[in-house]
Amino acid sequence: MFCRFLNTRHLEPELMDQPDVDPTLHRQALAALESVNRLSRTAAVLWRALLRWVPADQLPHLRLLDVACGGGDVLVQLGTWARARGWSWFLAGCDFSPRALEMSRIRARQAQLKLELFRHDVTESSLPGGWDAVTCTLFLHHLEDQTAQQLLGQMARAARHVALVDDLNRTCLGYVMAWTVGRLSRNLLVREDAPQSVRAAFTPAEVTRMAQAAGARVLELRRHWPQRWLLSFVAAEEEPALKEQAV
User: Fold this and answer.
1) Which CATH superfamily is domain 21-246 in?
2) Residues 87, 113: contact at Cβ < 8 Å?
3) 3-class secondary structure, 132
4) Can you tell me the distance from the alpha carbon of 89 to that of 246, in angstroms, rounded to the nearest whole number?
5) Residue 75: other Cβ atoms inside 10 A
6) Among candidates 194, 151, 163, which has minimal Cα distance to 65?
7) Do the beta carbons of residue 85 and residue 203 sit within 8 Å?
8) Integer CA distances (angstroms), 109 to 102, 104, 168, 203, in order
9) Can you give the pTM of this predicted structure?
10) Gap between the Cα atoms of 73 and 206, Å rounded
11) Cβ distance 61 to 88 under 8 Å?
């Protein structure tokens, strides 16, 4: 009864997405997202998926694009692990926010990693192709249904081996956790946007249907801590066979 309002998706503009958002609050919110990603082990989830779906002989020279890379923490972590293995990855990230891209540049410089960063608006133009893998974390829930479906199709077509989307699951527990995190934060953006993000999130069934409608073949839908899901998919060549796992 308490969470009946989560039966359907409710998308509202988040404060973080506003063009006139306070720069200091925005930087603090991006830093808070880094903490959320660290707690959720987002980079580790993506890393395992890349090792699973990309052929072993292709991994040492992977070309990876991170869509809506934000402050770049996930991309830099993946690059750091690849470097530790002696792999020479070509890492790229795109985001609509120049402020987010600047944070990515600073973080990459601190980690002594080279990133190719560029501004891109997924609502206005398609993703460039030529990547081995394309990733996207905590962004899909910001988009209208049609735009989200289009992005899934673009990612599938742009990725040679696998496209990975990791995002929030619209559940009662997820909402309570987000609301609690928001109440504990001093940042206005985190306080207001955290629960709204869950209200706007897609369920695993919803995102699976969208991916298939966008012309993608779903390789796997994996649920993971805390109230998140990871969708692994490629451009469809035949009827998709869905496998769902919980971890």
Assistant:
1) Vaccinia Virus protein VP39 (3.40.50.150)
2) no
3) strand
4) 30
5) 29
6) 163
7) no
8) 11, 8, 29, 36
9) 0.89
10) 27
11) yes
Tokens of 242: 């869905």
pLDDT band for 246, please (50, 70, 90 cuts). very low
Cβ burial, residue 186 (10 Å; 0-12/13-18/19+): exposed
Q: Which among 213, 215, 247 has a CA at the least distance from the CA of 234?
A: 215
DSSP string, 164-191: EEEEE---HHHHHHHHHHHHH-S-HHHH
123 backbone dihedrals φ, ψ, rounded to 5°: -80, -10
pLDDT in tens, 130-161: 999 999 999 999 999 999 999 999 999 999 99
The two three-digit tokens of residue 158, written as one number: 């742009």
Alpha helices in the chain (DSSP H): 23-40, 42-53, 73-84, 98-111, 145-158, 172-184, 188-200, 204-213
Question: For residue 159, what are its two tokens?
Answer: 């990725």
Give the C-alpha separation, 22 to 150, whole Å.
30
